[in-house]
Amino acid sequence: MARTAFLGLGVMGFHMAGHLAAKGHEVVVWNRTRSKAENWASQHKGEVAKDPASSVFGAEYVLLCLGDDPDVAEVFAALEPNVAAGMVVVDHTTASADLARDLYARCKAKGAHFLDAPISGGEAGALKGALTIMCGGDDPTFEQAQPIMAAYGKRMTHIGCAGSGQLAKSVNQICIAGIVQGLAEGLHFAEKAGLDTAAVIEAISGGAAQSWQMENRWKTMVDDHYTHGFAVDWMRKDLRITLEAARDNGATLPVTALVDQYYADVQAMGGNRWDTSSLLARLKR
To answer: Closest Cα partner for 170 from 88, 257, 271?
Structure first.
């Protein structure tokens, strides 16, 4: 079993750190809001650190699950003095590839190792320990970290060099944005046409229109229930990172850019914390 530090106990990180403890790893946690860390420690076997630097002292693995680039940069700067040779730092935050490359270089300069490893699967995936993890970094580092990530990850894929994991997460969000908008428009059309929506879904879900979003979200979308997953605020953050990367690499993402603005409309409706399937609410209202 390994000595691990887990920094960031949000919707995903809280459960991920819990799975590490349940698997018998030695876990030290830190969270900006200390009460969340203390709540975690009341439910799981582990220690609460007073700050990022002390949390990683002596750790073999340092796992981050934070909000955005500035959060990762700030926390890493705080813990960087205690990054030691041989340590593996894994960033599960969805952040920019540029930041991932910078942290990789800074870890390497100290004889440590770094993976950018954004996750997909939402709170349900974190709770079940069944997350999808897209990894960028050196292959030996990925192989070394796999048994640790297996505590909360069902599918772990090494994409390529540093930054590749973050870019793969952008691909994931591009695909989701288009699928959810298409599903929202299809459901909206069915309702306006006076069709039995359940019958339509039964008819088309066995063919090429089928998707995870259709299978898991059509009914809650029709019922205007949008409390089931990844929040619109976080999706817009991810799409911002994606569109910035597209400007750098020359990719053309007209649908993604349009759906990003649709999510801005949902925010203006007060749907910041609604899940990403709330694009239907925009069409209805």
So the answer is: 257
Looking at the structure, do residues 109 and 156 belong to the same domain, yes or no? yes
Looking at the fold, whether 229 and 146 belong to one and the same domain comes out as: no
Last residue of a domain, one of 102, 127, 161: 161
Distance CA(51)–CA(70), nearest Å, equals 17
Residues 154 and 190 in one domain: no
Give the catalytic positions in this structure. 169
The SS3 of residue 156 is: strand
d(CA 65, CA 53): 16
pLDDT digits (tens, 9 = 90+) for 177-227: 999 999 999 999 999 999 999 999 999 999 999 999 999 999 999 999 999
Find, among 61, 27, 62, the residue nearest to 45 by Cα: 27
For residues 147 and 182, state if they share a domain.
no
Nearest to 219 by CA among 193, 235, 233, 200: 200
3-state helix, strand, coil in the chain (%, to 5): 55, 15, 30
Instruction: Return phi, psi of residue 117, to 5°.
Output: -140, 65
User: Could you tell me if 241 and 206 lie in one domain?
Assistant: yes
Contacts of 11 (CB under 8 A, 6+ apart): 123, 126
Q: What is the pLDDT of residues 71-81, one digit of tens each?
A: 999 999 999 99
Q: How many domains are contained in the chain?
A: 2
Provide the residue type at 229 as one letter: G
Beta-carbon contacts of residue 33 (< 8 Å; ≥ 6 apart): none
